[in-house]
From TrEMBL:
Record key words, sorted: ATP-binding, Membrane, Nucleotide-binding, Transmembrane, Transmembrane helix
Presence of the UniProt keyword Transmembrane in the record: yes
Topology class, membrane: Multi-pass membrane protein
Domain ABC transporter positions: 383-604
First-listed, main subcellular location of the protein, grouped into a coarse class: membrane
Transmembrane regions: 98-117, 175-195, 201-219, 290-311
Official protein name in the record: ABC transporter ATP-binding protein
A Pfam family matched in the record: ABC_tran
InterPro entries on file: AAA+_ATPase, ABC1_TM_dom, ABC1_TM_sf, ABC_transporter-like_ATP-bd, ABC_transporter-like_CS, P-loop_NTPase, Type_1_exporter
Ranges of residues in domain ABC transmembrane type-1: 48-346
Length: 604
């Protein structure tokens, strides 16, 4: 099966969406493993080496009780045979102190060997767990970023952040627990059970009875644990979304003094997290006493059977010591495994939430269509709307728009609020797909154009320019990361950015705060224009770039825009006369009446 990473990077659509996978929850975890298997593929060799280390560690652990048994049988004189180390001690003759010293040294040596393999196994396998989860996190973020705006319109920023950070973190915890506890634990248990069986079939039967009993306890309530973990993750995601929203709107919260409203919302949603958390704790806690009872019963049975066997001379005391050592060794990882059920339930719930994101079809990563190959590096700039309708869900934004814009024309779209002007711009940029009809650039539908090519042909200055934390120059260079400092400076000069940054001590190197804080509205717009100038695209979209500016700021922004729009196709949305004057034609989108959509009246 194609790995998620491959699927995403090649733009392949996965054969089955996660929604379909989840139809059968009983097999969901297996399907989930298959879904994520591709992330482990590059680490097969490391994993194989890690498995080898674990096998050696298990082998060393199996030797651990034998020196003790040899001491009991050969040094303390309990008598007995068939202890492979006993004959080794016999080499030392009758010097019991030397035998004791040798046995003690052997205990230390075996422990050291086991610890060394444990260390190497942990390094290798946990490293693979960490690397796999880092790859999953990278892929989730990369995929999420490229999902169409229609996906993001339906999600909160906090919710999506929580999937990339917290869910990927939980998957990492699950993977590391798998590598460092589950896998070595299963190896140890299997090794101890097999060794018990080899020691004597009666010991083996007791060991073999303990394993399924403990495993049954592990899977008991698994569904309940999984449901609780899933609910908890959903509630935590909502909580993150709530915090992100309140902090994004912190100025409004302060301005209206509505902290209490957000406190109450937060407390209500925290209640959901708490309930789910308590349920998960309950599921976990119920297992502990049952597990103790099963292991105590197993030990008691072994002690009784072993004791009877020693009394009747079937086995030596040393054999009983070894058998009890094996059973104790077997129970320890089982106990650790049962404590991990919460981590695994949480990891599975989070993996499902990540799989939901990765299973979202991503048209922006679709392979280049044959008809779109051989495009010129730069479009001429003709834009055609042919019978374009656009619905956001069941909300109609545009209805049958027909509009032809020749290369080099500067068309202003006007019309009442909600007439679909911004939607028309978004369609030219290929940010949405029209519900009906086509938007073409130089005769090719945007839906058929490669994403990268389209991005090079269209640039935009929006009502509010979003700036990232970093320097002013970084923000301008965002349009073309390989631009030289001279090109950045030229764009900044042309957009009248240097007119204000030259007054700052660090000039274009001035650092902006989070989300580009620290500049006025007009200054931000000029940085946006410099960015668009640097992109040097043949088609420029302007969405109310001067709204909200005072007369002086508007004059400067319009002057800067004059350089951006020269010799380019421009589609602008504006009501401001200063900008309208630069248009070569005006098209008014008119509401055709409630529920009947909108039409276009071409005012050219
Ligand atoms: N992301 C979205 N999700 C759902 N509905 C949307 C979305 N964007 C716009 N709409 C709806 O589509 C319709 C057209 O919106 P659009 O922003 O294109 O109009 P506009 O003419 O640019 O309005 P304005 O002049 O107020 O900016 C409106 O009814 C709006 O509520």
């Amino acid at each position: 099966m194609e790995s998620p990473a491959d699927a995403a990077s090649t733009g392949g659509q996965r054969p089955v969406g996660w929604g379909a996978l989840m139809k059968d929850p009983s097999t969901a975890h297996r399907q989930l493993l298959r879904f994520f298997r591709g992330f482990g593929a590059p680490y097969r060799r490391l994993l194989a080496l890690g498995v080898g280390m674990r096998l050696c560690e298990t082998a060393a652990d199996l030797v651990t009780p034998w020196p003790v048994a040899a001491v009991v049988d050969h040094v303390l004189g309990a008598g007995g045979a068939r202890n492979p180390l006993g004959s080794l001690l016999d080499v030392l003759g009758t010097d019991r102190t030397a035998m004791l010293t040798a046995a003690a040294a052997l205990v230390v040596l075996v422990a050291l060997v086991s610890a060394a393999f444990d260390y190497a196994g942990d390094r290798l396998m946990n490293g693979v767990g960490e690397r796999m989860s880092a790859a999953i996190r990278r892929e989730t973020f990369a995929h999420l970023q490229r999902l169409p705006l229609s996906y993001h319109d339906r999600r909160t920023v906090g919710g999506s952040t929580s999937r990339v950070i917290t869910d990927c973190g939980n998957v990492k915890d699950g993977l590391v627990a798998f590598c460092s506890v589950l896998f070595p634990g299963v190896l140890s248990v299997t090794g101890y059970a097999a060794a018990l069986l080899l020691l004597d079939w009666r010991f083996g039967l007791i060991g073999a009875a303990v394993v399924p009993a403990v495993l049954l306890l592990g899977v008991r309530n698994r569904r309940r644990g999984h449901r609780a973990a899933r609910r908890r993750r959903e509630a935590e995601g909502e909580l993150t979304a709530l915090v992100a929203e309140a902090l994004q709107g912190i100025r409004t919260v302060h301005a209206f003094g509505r902290h209490g409203v957000h406190d109450r919302d937060f407390a209500a949603r925290s209640g959901g997290v708490l309930d789910a958390g308590l349920e998960a704790v309950d599921v976990q806690a119920r297992r502990a006493p049952l597990l103790e009872a099963v292991t105590a019963a197993g030990t008691a049975a072994l002690l009784w059977v072993g004791g009877v066997g020693v009394l009747r001379g079937w086995w030596s005391t040393g054999h009983l010591v070894v058998a009890i050592g094996y059973l104790t060794g077997m129970v320890a990882p089982l106990r650790a495994l049962s404590k991990l059920s919460g981590t695994f339930a949480q990891g599975q719930a989070s993996a499902e939430r990540i799989a939901e994101v990765l299973a979202e079809p991503c048209p922006l990563r679709a392979p280049v269509r044959a008809g779109a190959r051989g495009l010129p590096p730069r479009a001429r700039g003709r834009v055609d709307f042919a019978g374009v309708s656009m619905d956001y869900g069941d909300r109609r934004a545009l209805h049958r728009l027909d509009l032809k814009i020749a290369a080099g024309e500067r068309i202003a779209l006007t019309g009442p609020n909600g007439a679909g002007k911004s939607t028309a711009l978004a369609l030219v940029a290929g940010l949405y797909r029209p519900t009906r009809g086509t938007v073409c650039i130089d005769g090719t539908a945007t839906a058929d154009l490669p994403e990268e090519w389209l991005r090079r042909q269209v640039t935009a200055v929006l009502q509010e320019t979003f700036l990232f934390a970093g320097t002013v120059a970084d923000n301008i260079r965002y349009a073309r990361p390989d631009a030289s400092p001279r090109e950045v400076r030229a764009a900044a000069d042309a957009a009248l950015v240097t007119a204000f940054t030259d007054g700052f001590p660090d000039g274009l190197g001035t650092r902006l705060g989070d989300c580009g804080g620290g500049l006025s509205g007009g200054q931000r717009q000029r940085v946006g224009i410099a960015r668009a100038l640097l992109a040097d695209a043949p088609i420029v979209l302007l969405d109310e770039p001067t709204s909200g500016l005072d007369a002086e700021a508007e004059r400067q922004v319009v002057a800067a825009l004059g350089r951006l729009v020269a010799d380019r196709t421009v589609v602008m949305v504006t009501h401001r006369p200063a900008l309208l004057e630069t248009a070569t034609g005006v098209v008014t989108l008119t509401a055709a009446g409630p529920g009947r959509g909108y039409g276009a009246a071409d005012g050219r």
